[in-house]
Amino acid sequence: MKQISIPDTTKASLDRIAAVNKKLNAIIYLDREKVLKEAEGTRRNVGGIATRGIPIAIKDNICVKDEPTTCASRILKGFKPPYDATVIRKLKNAGFITVGKANMDEFAFGSSCETSCYGPTRNPWNLEMIPGGSSGGSAAAVAAGEVSMALGSDTGGSVRQPAALCGIVGMKPTYGRVSRYGLIAFASSLDQIGPLTANVTDCAALLNVISGHDEMDSTSADLPVPDFTKSLVKNAKKLKIGVPKEYFPEGGIDKEVEKAISKSKDVLKSSGAEIVDISLPNTEYALSCYYIIAPAEASSNLARFDGDQYGLREDAKGTIEMHTKTRTAGFGDEAKRRILLGTYSLSSGYYKAYYLKAMKVRTLIKNDFLQAFKVCDVILTATSPTAAFKIGEKINDPLSMYLSDIFTIPANLAGIPGISVPCGFTKSGLPVGMQFLAKPFDEETLIRTAYTFEQNTDFHKKKPNL
Which of 208, 346, 429, 437 has the least CB density, counted as fewest CB within 10 Å? Predict the structure, then answer.
């Protein structure tokens, strides 16, 4: 079989972006000449690394040296980091070709990729629909074949939910498995970088590259990294899969999504898995808990964006006026909403009533999972309660938008790994995703479970017609 050269592979990716990206708005920055030059300088089989020459898109909140990194916000207009994030350095060392920055919700605040200052990203399966968020650009780019892989970040479901809505694979590794150095922070105790890929095999290969301890990240876990590709085993025998009753509330999940999940359970049973009923009693508090902790940490993290050192700077007579004018012009509505919510819950007199209490509830949620994993190996849920909805449908209804992440948020609060895989389609042809969760640092079981399901179905093979 003739081997395709790295420049040819890269050019094919760039040509695909040129052909479809105007419809999608998935890639928001691309230096074609620089990418081709990088591809020309990369040899295929150096050191036996199989990933050399693979084009990959990077979410716009992950720092790439000397390339615009704006978090899709006006306030970071013109900012070019002087360094690479640790994951970018690892990708480059492994021979990946970084192909542009992917669109996202501003500062990762959203579930639809509509709050970007560059405009919304559209779902490749139906251009009138959202791709999910906040890593919507990364998910849409992979689903549309612009790139074969992408990196996103997951604070409350921002890798898994768009993966589900775009019909691809998305994983949130265990908190600490992948370095956050160079990831512009949303909520530091929740954020985690993760892969978005066309299939589970690619997910395992990419996770191999980006995982590992990093001295530049104090939250990075100093643990050995297994070869995740060895978990690509089509075998679910002796695997106990827990189904939490709290994730299937009466009327709380779309009927087509519920039907797809039910059929998926049958596939897993026929593959040798045992399905067991479990309970996660504190799930009902997860959304409220998250929307105290995440905005509070965001309020603190975003305080650094004031026009003093980088990004947007509005002219003013004094420092305070300049800060006010810069933030007013630079932050979008959703960013302002979350900053205000977070500042309020951290303010004098409210810290104990809100933030401290939320942290205690977070511990209860984490303990629920640890108890559940004593009776099962993996937990199965829907990734999203619905398939993709129309652009503009929920943008003015924050509460309805926040409910889009109701099944993904608990994993971030608990710090456990999760993966979303395609498990069906609605009657209108929109993808449905299924989520697997595992105990901390057990990505191997997640990959084994997801791979077994994938190999017994054809959902991952279907592609949108653009």
Answer: 429
Terminal-to-terminal C-alpha distance of the chain: 29
Check if CATH label 3.40.190.10 holds for domain 6-281+367-461: no
CB-based contact 58:100 (threshold 8 Å): yes
Q: Is 231 known to be catalytic?
A: no
Determine whether 101 is an active site residue.
Answer: no
Can you give the pLDDT at residue 250? 83
Write down the pLDDT at residue 50: 61
- Residue of 73, 111, 134, 153 marked catalytic: 134
Q: Are 278 and 319 in contact (CB under 8 A)?
A: no
Residues 352-384: tens digit of each pLDDT: 889 999 999 999 999 999 999 999 999 999 999
Share of the chain above pLDDT 70, in %: 97
Q: Read off the pTM.
A: 0.96
d(CA 271, CA 316): 66
Encoded tokens for 366: 């984490």
Where are the domains positioned within the chain?
A: 6-281+367-461
Contacts of 417 (CB under 8 A, 6+ apart): 171, 172, 173, 174, 177, 411, 437, 438, 440, 441, 442, 443, 446
Q: Which of 59, 90, 101, 172 is catalytic?
A: 59
Spans of the chain, pLDDT less than 70:
1-3, 43-51
> What is the side-by-side order of every strand in the sheet holding 55-59?
27-29, 97-102, 55-59, 149-153, 193-197, 169-172, 418-425, 431-437, 378-382, 240-244, 274-278
pLDDT at res. 43: 67
Rounded Cα distance, 324 and 334, in Å = 17
pLDDT, one tens digit per residue, over 298-316 is 999 999 999 998 999 999 9
CA distance readout (Å), 47 to 2, 319, 346, 354: 20, 53, 51, 52
59 annotated active-site = yes
Q: Is 24 helix (H, G, I), strand (E, B) or coil?
A: helix
> How confident is the prediction for the chain on average, in pLDDT?
95
Distance (Å, whole) CA 142 – CA 352: 43
